[in-house]
Amino acid sequence: MDARGDSPQNPITQALLAWYRSHARTLPWRAPPGAPRMEAYRIWLSEVMLQQTTVAAVIPYFETFTRRWTSVEALAAAPEEDVMAAWAGLGYYSRARRLVECARVVAGLGAFPQDEAGLRALPGLGAYTAAAVASIAFGQRAVVVDGNVERVVSRLFAIDTPLPTAKTLIRDGADSLTPDDHPGDFAQAMMDLGATICTPRSPKCLICPVAEWCEARAEGKAEAYPVKPPKVAKPARIGTVFWITREGPQGAEVWLVRREGKGLLGGMRALPEDGWTARLDGSRQPPFAAAWRDLGAVTHVFTHFSLTMTVQGATAPTPPEGPGEWWPLARIDEAGLPTVFARAAARAMAGLELEFP
Ligand code: SF4
């Protein structure tokens, strides 16, 4: 049955809202259905954290951030390096820089803009985040399409055009369902349905509240939607990371640098490396001549490439050239290293243990 039509009478919309009232997930950034809306700061923060990251991974970071910076003004006043360090491990670090930038703009404005266009103008807010904040925090009608919504809508309407061409059709489908009343609840209901029932594999059509209108279910091939574009292999890069240590006044220390500017992992504390990028292998040239030892290798998959990084170790009683700092090995967990470098550090320490048991 094709249920496309004007909201709010749309039966799919009604069924979803009814289902949400009794099945909404409990999340630290969410007000229960019918309760007063959560403040925009928490909704914006959670939405930025949730970009390309799972709910389970975000929850502890969200709780730490909101305990430490209780308002957008507090976050705006924080040193960027503190925010970057608190973000370490969550990935996609450009989000953390944009987070601080956005907090400062909002603090300057005095409050978050309440409409989608005003939100879209803020740093780091794409179409999805602006629509999500407008509808969930401010009750504005906005068409919210994330990966979950994309999957649900493409199945409901059996949209057989491959992504990304299908995005316009999917947005139109979501638009046809979005109600004027309770648009925030509706957006969250769609997200919850996608996360808990209409899952990528083995969707639970038997208990789905909108099953009777779902075209993909009627065809018996729910998992075929959304139709994916043909796969393109990620480039594989090779790099080297340098584990430079000395015996410091308080014990063993390792040389850490701060990565430059706005590039990959820019602004983050890191181990020195040989200049690998998403497009180039590293030079394999160490920063100085020494008896370098091979301490193993780590592989890390970024969005657009995978990297296999050899870990080379040497001691250097004097600081290597260029800016950096000696960091106590006993506190390496507190350095805020991004995951790829934290793995390399763990690899280096394991390698040294094998070499000098
Ligand atoms: Fe998804 Fe199945 Fe529900 Fe359709 S019926 S929306 S495929 S869970």
Low-confidence stretches: 1-8
At the fourth CATH level, what is the homologous superfamily of the largest domain? Hypothetical protein, domain 2
Strand content: 5-15%
Structure summary, number of beta strands: 6
Taken from the alpha-carbon principal axes, the silhouette is: globular
Main CATH class of the largest domain: Mainly Alpha
Taking the alpha carbons of the first and last residues, their distance comes to 69 Å
User: Largest sheet at a glance?
Assistant: 6 strands, mixed
What is the CATH fold-level name of the largest domain? Endonuclease III, domain 1
Structural class: alpha+beta
* Total separate domains: 2
Alpha plus pi helix count: 13
Cofactors, ions, other ligands: iron/sulfur cluster
On the 0 to 100 scale, the average pLDDT is 92
**Secondary-structure element string:** HHHHHHHHHHHHEEEEEEH
Radius of gyration over C-alpha positions, nearest whole angstrom: 24 Å
Q: What is the correct CATH architecture of the largest domain?
A: Orthogonal Bundle
Share of helix, binned: 25-40%
Give an overview in words.
- The protein is of the alpha+beta class and 357 residues long.
- The protein has two domains: 214 residues, Endonuclease III, domain 1; 120 residues, Nucleoside Triphosphate Pyrophosphohydrolase, CATH 3.90.79.
- It is 40% helix and 13% strand.
- The chain is built from 13 helices and six strands.
- Strands 1, 2, 3, 4, 5 and 6 form a six-stranded mixed sheet that branches.
- A hairpin with a 4-residue loop joins strand 4 and strand 5.
- The longest helix has 17 residues.
- It is globular and about 75 Å long.
- The N terminus is likely disordered.
